[in-house]
Design brief:
The chain has 362 residues and is α+β, with helices and mostly antiparallel strands. Helices cover 19% and strands 29% of the residues. It is built from seven helices and 23 strands. A hairpin with an 8-residue loop joins strand 1 and strand 2.
């Protein structure tokens, strides 16, 4: 008992000294201060019992309230701080029938789909927090891809490109990871014939990004919202007519996962290695004019505005897309002018011409 009294006197002496140097202190502040220095007076029969708080428990509580995850700038999903700070890397992925099924499209945070030439579509897939082991087949660059690459301040993995696309790399400061320049970052498989057999992985891409000092990405994120699946869907089946049936994409809304199960030419799209179904959280179809050059390659007008249809939560929302400059983020607004917030997860954007249609049914 003498020892406890002695310890109490020592704590009170320190407390008096502190109060002397801090003239004003509230009752609440005194209680907090007592807790901080480790003293709580507990009434007892002789009013002398003293117990000490467990400071380690206080520290543990403080640690528990610190955020351990952060919203990914690319997907809006909760990821580690390290993953949220990773640079964005884009990869051109082929979509001819000889390239299917592709590898690791399901892990991309954003996929842009457009026609390369001859009605054949091609994907531009963006990755940040995910690091797939196998990605491909990797194909060549197109000039309108630069409108997305500069928007996300991404490095770009590609196998050459059209003359117009390659001419823009220097003037636009594009972070090129061209296979023709950095061949060791890519491999050619033997189970597919060229040019449908070029693959890469993020061990190789991260190494090259670091060597070239492509270690960060600065871009505007899309506004996100909390997913709210509707009880009665307005768009549970979607069909996007971009060219011929071979490249027609369609989706079925899965209410349980609140994702859109994607098909290509009527066949479910799955990952080559894992067999995982391609299922974006948000599907967007934008309309814009395009031209076809003498080489037969398409060129889309992606700076400007036009009609957009946003599919999420089982609903379809018709509005407007707008992009004021090549390096500025695309935005989506409703008919009343409000910005459309997107669900976290993979966003898949397909571009069609104004005379094409996206169809959907309940």
């Amino acid at each position: 008992m003498y020892f406890m009294k002695h310890k109490l006197k020592a704590h009170v002496a320190r407390l008096k000294a502190w109060i002397t140097s801090h003239k004003a202190i509230s009752a609440t502040g005194l209680v907090v201060l007592l807790a901080i220095i480790g003293v709580i007076v507990v009434p007892s029969s002789d009013n002398t019992e003293v117990s000490r708080t467990d400071v380690s428990n206080v520290a543990q509580v403080e640690d528990e309230v610190k955020p351990t995850t952060f919203a990914s700038p690319l997907t809006g999903l909760q990821v580690s701080k390290e993953e949220a700070n990773r640079p964005v890397t884009a990869i051109v992925i082929e979509n001819s029938p000889d390239a299917r099924p592709q590898s690791s499209l399901h892990e991309a945070g954003f996929v842009f789909e457009s026609i390369a030439e001859g009605g054949i579509t091609r994907y531009l897939a963006f990755y940040q927090e995910s690091r797939p082991d196998t990605i491909g087949p990797v194909r060549s660059l197109r000039p309108y891809f630069s409108d997305w690459i500069t928007t996300f301040d991404a490095s770009i993995a590609h196998v050459g490109g059209s003359q117009a696309a390659l001419a823009e790399i220097g003037p636009l400061g594009i972070k090129s990871l061209n296979q023709f320049t950095y061949g060791n970052t890519y491999i050619r498989t033997t189970d597919r014939f060229a040019p449908h057999n070029v693959y890469t992985d993020f061990d190789k891409l991260d190494t090259l990004n670091t060597q070239l000092n492509y270690t960060s990405s600065d871009f505007d994120t899309w506004p996100r919202k909390t997913p709210k699946p509707v009880a009665t869907p307005k768009a549970s089946e979607i069909t996007v007519n971009i060219s011929s049936f071979l490249y027609q994409s369609s989706y079925s809304w899965d209410k349980e996962s609140n994702t859109y199960l994607r098909r290509i030419a009527g066949t479910p799209m799955t990952d080559r290695e894992t067999k995982t179904r391609i299922a974006p959280s948000v599907v967007i179809v934008i309309e814009t004019p395009f031209s076809i050059g003498q080489d037969g390659r398409y060129d889309y007008k992606l700076v400007g505005d036009g009609k957009a249809t946003v599919f999420q939560d089982g609903n379809a929302q018709v509005g407007t897309w707008s992009k004021n400059a090549r390096d500025q983020q695309i935005s989506f607004t409703s008919d009343n002018g409000d910005e459309i917030e997107l669900n976290p997860g993979q966003v898949w954007i397909t571009v069609i011409s104004p005379n094409q249609e996206v169809e959907y049914t309940p």
